[in-house]
Amino acid sequence: MTIEDLYSRYEEIIPDFKEFMNILQKPQRLSIRSNTLKCKRETILNFLNDFKLKPLRFYNDGYVIENGSGIGNHFTHQLGYIYIQEIASMIPVIVLDPKPEDIVLDLCAAPGSKTTQISQLMGNKSLIVANEVDYKRLSSLIHNVKKCSLFNESLISIPGEKIGDILPNYFDKILLDAPCSAEGTIRKSKKILYHWGIKNIQKMSRIQKGLIVSAFRALKPGGIIIYSTCTIAPEENEGVIDYLLNKFPEAEILPININDFKCRSGINQWQKMNYDARVKNCVRILSQDNDTAPFFIAKITKL
After folding, report:
1. Which among 4, 6, 8 has a CA at the least distance from the CA of 194?
2. Closest to 237 (Cα-Cα) out of 286, 271, 197, 279
3. What is the DSSP letter of 136?
4. CB 251 within 8 A of CB 245
5. What are the tens digits of pLDDT across the range 33-88?
6. Do 298 and 226 touch, CB atoms closer than 8 A?
7. What is the pLDDT of residue 239?
8. Of 85, 82, 98, which is closest to residue 130 (Cα–Cα)?
9. At 218, is the pLDDT very low, low, confident or very high (cuts 50, 70, 90)?
10. CA end-to-end span of the chain, whole Å?
11. What is the DSSP string of 165-216?
12. Active-site annotation holder among 148, 230, 263, 282
């Protein structure tokens, strides 16, 4: 399968499709997040004097490294002073906006990039419950939590679909960075070309619907869920949010605004499917707008 074969199905929902395809051919920019739980930002930047860093305008702890070859072996990475994280991947936690007093759930937490980012924004206070059901991936979560010096985490391994029944109306904020078909990872790796398929998208959509229902049940009234994927498929994005809205009348979709970062609205129609009008409040992050991976984000509350 070629890149054109995979992404051609989305031409009708991406007006500047040629620009989108052109940037997918380019390597992904290398970006990092400074870990202020472990070291002051100014000290970290001094340690990285040999690298050319470009700050991200929308996030004080995010940077693009323009000469980042070897950063994975640098002592700042080995000691957890920095975390290598794709730019768009930082956005869901920024939109979640966890506070030091919040009780937070990271429903699908491994390998820990967003878990550690959440704890950082919470100042290592209160409680973040990091759940990962896959034992193989759980080891990477444990490693990163320790390396980044988290003190406010509790690691659990429970099927995500059951958490809403075990801890109903419990969490102030929930991140559901859902397992997905990972179409947005193409600039990092071409592996997606070898396992992508419509059946996989449909399978992921079923899993995502079970997870978002569980997350919604676990959310306190007035709380916030951020649902995100690194895929373009509407079946895994707007289709999942539409399913939630139909199932729970008390679910509402809130608008998302990110300063100095371009986002596009969610879509209402896809292949003869009409979605709830409120999915327009979701955002699509496309690679050509900010030179990032594609992402989808929805901000949900329980009335």
Report:
1. 6
2. 279
3. H
4. yes
5. 999 999 999 999 999 999 999 999 999 999 999 998 889 999 999 999 999 999 99
6. yes
7. 98
8. 98
9. very high
10. 45
11. HHSTT-EEEEEEE-----GGGTTT-TTHHHH--HHHHHHHHHHHHHHHHHHH
12. 230
Active site residue 148: no
Q: What is the mean pLDDT of residues 189-203?
A: 93
Q: Give me the mean pLDDT over the 139-164 stretch.
A: 97
pTM, two decimals, is 0.97
Beta strands in 60-143 (DSSP E): 62-65, 82-84, 103-106, 127-131
Rounded to whole angstroms, the Cα distance separating 91 from 97 reads 10
Question: Strand, helix or coil at 75?
Answer: helix
pLDDT at 58: 96
> Whole-angstrom Cα distance, residue 115 to residue 108?
9
Dist CA 205 CA 6 (whole Å) = 18
pLDDT digit string (tens) for 6-36?
999 999 999 999 999 999 999 999 999 999 9
In terms of Cα–Cα distance, which of 257, 256, 259 is closest to 298? Answer: 256
**CB of 126 closer than 8 Å to CB of 260:** no
